Amino acid sequence: MYAIAKIAGKQFRLEPKKNVKVPLLDVKEGSAYTIDDILFAVDSRGAKIDDAALKGIKANAKVVLHGRDKKVIVFKKKRRQGFKVTKGHRQDFTLLEIESLEGLIGEAKKAETPKQEAKPKAKPKKKAADKPKKKPAATKGKKPAAKAKPKAAPKKKAKAKPKAEEKNAEKPVKEEKPAVAAAPEEALQAEEKPEKEGVEKEKKEGE
Description:
The protein contains two helices and ten strands. It is α+β, with helices and mostly antiparallel strands.
């Protein structure tokens, strides 16, 4: 069950036995205060919106105290002009305690079912302690025969490593190519003849 009311131009949710902080009201502390401007209400019958259904609904409150909120810092600045202003502001308020909402029917409280007590769990049975095993009686005067140790297997002889090749092994000699024989004089003379013949022909043509 609750109602939405308008107080000093602002909307607040009102519930019975709860406090509401509203703007400062011109009312003395400890005096009664009635709120008639109800905008919306909800009770066990449902929501009420229209004016006819909201007629007759009002909230009865009590003024608890008047006070001021925490300081809010207001800072202003204009760059390149050397303008800076710092101010503080504390908003005045009135604290109201909602005593009742007239015209509304509260929801019926559901009957509380008694909780069933949990049964204590049965303790687990302790297991029988294991009995210590009896050791076999030692025979007097007789010592147990010592076990023969197995003979170690003969070690295998390591194979002899092959001898390293000699470092100064002879390198294969490269075969020398035969030198080109000098051209014979006859071949040179044969090359010079056609050159001479060509020069003589040019002289004859020139004459």
